[in-house]
C-alpha cells in the first residue's frame, strides 16, 4: 500500500540502501539445543526531484530475531521465536482533506515522513516426531503472537466512519498440523 499519486512518473531520482547483518547459529546437535540470533540494521532512502532524502518503503532500521529450542530424546521438540523490527515509514493521510472528499488524500509533501510503531511478536512451538520403518510423521502446534500484541500493518481512510482507521496484522493465532517425511 502507498500513496495514490496521480501524474507523470519520471525515473530521475537517486536511491541507496546500506546496512549490516550479523547472525550467530547453534545447529541442532547431540546436546539437543539449537538457536539463532540475528541482528540487522537497514537504511534505505532516495532523493526525489523535489530534493531532500526521503526514507525508502523498506527502511525499518533495527531488526532483531532470536530463535531457541530444545529437542528431547523421546521425539519432542520445543522452541520459541522472538522478533522485533523498527517501524516502517509511510506517507501520512491528511484527515481534513480526506474528510472533505471522503477518500484518502495523502500528504504528498510529507512523503514517507511518518513511521508505524515498532513490530514485535513472540511465537512458541511444540513438535512430536513419530519414526516408522521408512518414514516419519511430525505433528506440531504453534502459538503465534502469544502476547496478542496489536502490530499495525497500515492506516487507511474509513469511508463509512469518515475517519482514519487501522489495519492490524494477525493477533494471537494458534496453528497446528502434521507432515509426513519419507
Index terms:
182 residues, mainly beta, 8-stranded antiparallel β-sheet, two-stranded antiparallel sheet, elongated
What would your notes on this structure say?
With 182 residues, this protein is mainly beta. It has a domain at 64-181. It contains 1 helix and 12 strands; from the N terminus they run ββββββαββββββ. The protein has one helix at residues 95-101; strands spanning 14-26, 33-47, 53-55, 61-71, 76-85, 89-90, 114-115, 119-131, 136-144, 152-158, 163-168, 173-181. The strands form 3 sheets. Strands 1, 2, 3, 4, 5, 8, 9 and 12 form an 8-stranded antiparallel beta sheet that branches. β4 and β5 (76-85) form a beta hairpin. The model has no long low-confidence stretch (mean pLDDT 91).
Short description:
The protein has one helix at residues 95-101; strands at 14-26, 33-47, 53-55, 61-71, 76-85, 89-90, 114-115, 119-131, 136-144, 152-158, 163-168, 173-181. The protein is mostly beta strands and 182 residues long.
Amino acid at each position: 500500500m502507498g500513496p495514490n499519486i496521480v501524474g507523470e512518473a519520471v525515473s530521475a531520482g537517486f536511491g541507496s540502501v546500506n546496512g549490516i547483518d550479523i547472525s550467530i547459529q547453534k545447529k541442532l546437535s547431540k546436546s539437543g539445543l539449537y538457536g539463532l540470533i540475528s541482528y540487522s540494521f537497514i537504511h534505505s532512502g532516495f532523493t526525489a526531484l523535489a530534493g531532500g532524502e526521503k526514507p525508502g518503503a523498506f527502511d525499518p532500521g533495527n531488526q532483531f530475531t532470536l530463535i531457541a529450542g530444545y529437542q528431547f530424546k523421546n521425539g519432542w521438540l520445543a522452541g520459541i521465536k522472538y522478533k522485533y523490527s523498527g517501524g516502517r515509514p509511510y506517507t501520512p493521510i491528511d484527515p481534513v482533506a480526506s474528510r472533505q472528499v471522503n477518500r484518502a488524500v495523502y500528504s504528498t509533501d510529507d512523503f514517507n515522513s511518518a513511521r508505524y510503531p515498532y513490530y514485535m511478536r513472540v511465537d512458541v512451538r511444540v513438535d512430536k516426531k513419530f519414526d516408522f520403518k521408512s518414514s516419519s510423521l511430525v505433528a506440531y502446534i504453534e502459538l503465534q503472537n502469544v502476547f496478542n500484541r496489536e502490530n499495525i500493518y497500515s492506516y487507511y481512510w474509513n469511508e463509512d466512519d469518515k475517519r482514519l482507521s487501522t489495519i492490524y496484522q494477525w493477533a494471537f493465532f494458534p496453528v497446528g498440523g502434521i507432515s509426513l517425511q519419507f
